Amino acid sequence: MQSSQWTSDLHWVREGKQDRSRKTQAKLLDAAEDLFAEHGIDGATMADIAAAAGCSIGAFYHHYRDKRALQFALFDRYATMFEKTNRIALDPARWEGARIADIVQSYVQVSIENDRMRPGQRRAATELGRVEPEIRSHVLKLRAMMDTGIRELLLARSDEIGHSDPELAISFVLDQLGSMIRTRVHEPEMPTRFASQPDEQFFAETVRSVCAYLQVDPPSH
Amino acid sequence: MQSSQWTSDLHWVREGKQDRSRKTQAKLLDAAEDLFAEHGIDGATMADIAAAAGCSIGAFYHHYRDKRALQFALFDRYATMFEKTNRIALDPARWEGARIADIVQSYVQVSIENDRMRPGQRRAATELGRVEPEIRSHVLKLRAMMDTGIRELLLARSDEIGHSDPELAISFVLDQLGSMIRTRVHEPEMPTRFASQPDEQFFAETVRSVCAYLQVDPPSH
DNA sequence: ATTATCTATAGATCTATAGATAATGC
DNA sequence: ATTATCTATAGATCTATAGATAATGC
């Protein structure tokens, strides 16, 4: 039966019957992640991807229906990881007794470290979102989930905030942090003076800036 | 003589002898700027660009040697405007007697407004820089020029700053502002709560944040 | 008479397929 | 016996050119 050649929920990848399958599929995903991030989706040809994965173009099309299917599979892997990481990191129980400055500091550190580990993933996901509406709406949902999670951690501590409009101030800070983290890890458009400083300095000044703006106490330690 | 078909200093564009030439060339640049910004360089085909400019592919190749030449010409137009704007805006005489908060506020406002006027230019220039090393180094030079200009305006007013390391703090603030302006105008990855606020609110909170961090007085009016 | 534009298409490049060959595991 | 891989190539798309036609301005 032709129609079940592709798995049901992930209808873009063939369900392999041999061990080789999984390995080849993973290698193709890794190769695509790197090449998409570096050259963009259109800039990475199937020949490039197959070569980087150490297999042939024919082998690729045995596993994935087409280039687009690879994009979906790649995003699927990213989304799963992203959701899991956030579910753990943003669990309110985890932050029992913590103050705003501690949460912000940890948020900045963890975000930077996560993004650095797999530099290709986020850029690939973002670029996919630009082309594939289905992926775009999923990306937005994931980011909104993270945004809501951290927002509520901070909102629950509004009484620490000296800024006259705590809710507005929190929204501003979240945008500010998101923007700066993205720039530092993914799109350092130019080697500015501060970009060349070590991460520790970036953490310190970022937290300092947020605390000064919100008018909350600096981190405890 | 074949070699002088292209003008000497801008060796990628033909020097037109009729009025039509200038018009067609300008229309092609405008079309390319929009399409490059929207679909990326590879995503915009010569057929698209010619159609958007209201001429044929053949007409395009009469004026520009190839697609790459169009990129250089486009960047040239951007660079000229960018440099002129900055030379005026960052003239120390213009800021005689101004305080840090006033300079920062004006910088944010002018940057946002300039970028909004021609939304395609910066994105096109940035993407060109990714592919063309010659353009990349020129982009870096332009940005460094702007960075130095505003840095010196602020450094000259170091005595207003309460932050313990004024030079470091200025570097941090410039990165922060650059990142936030870019995100707001060019790469609003997702419709966050704060992104939907009007520009005035963005200006106000941004300036407030910078003043709190630097420990300087708020803007005068 | 020169300059600019158009149509049609050659040549290059990339995606995806067809058909043959090799490896796996019951 | 089935599954996975490879080589070779058809078909689509895009850049750039060739040659013919139209507009400009001396």
Describe this structure as you would to a colleague.
- The structure is a homodimer of 221-residue chains.
- The first copy, chain A, has 221 residues and is an all-alpha fold.
- Helix content of chain A is 67%, strand content 0%.
- In chain A, helix 1 (19-39) crosses helix 2 (46-53), helix 1 packs across helix 6 and helix 4 (67-89) runs parallel beside helix 7 (133-155).
- Chain A is elongated, with a radius of gyration of 21 Å.
- Chain A starts with 18 loop residues before the first helix and ends in a 7-residue tail after the last helix.
- The A-B interface holds A 40, 42-43, 126, 139-140, 143-144, 147, 168-169, 171-172, 174-176, 178-180, 182-183, 187, 189-195, 197, 201, 205, 208-209, 212-213, 215 and B 40, 42-43, 126, 139-140, 143-144, 147, 168-169, 171-172, 174-176, 178-180, 182-183, 187, 189-195, 197, 201, 205, 208-209, 212-213, 215.
- Chain A binds a DNA duplex (26 and 26 nucleotides) through residues 16-21, 24, 45-47, 55-63, 66-67.
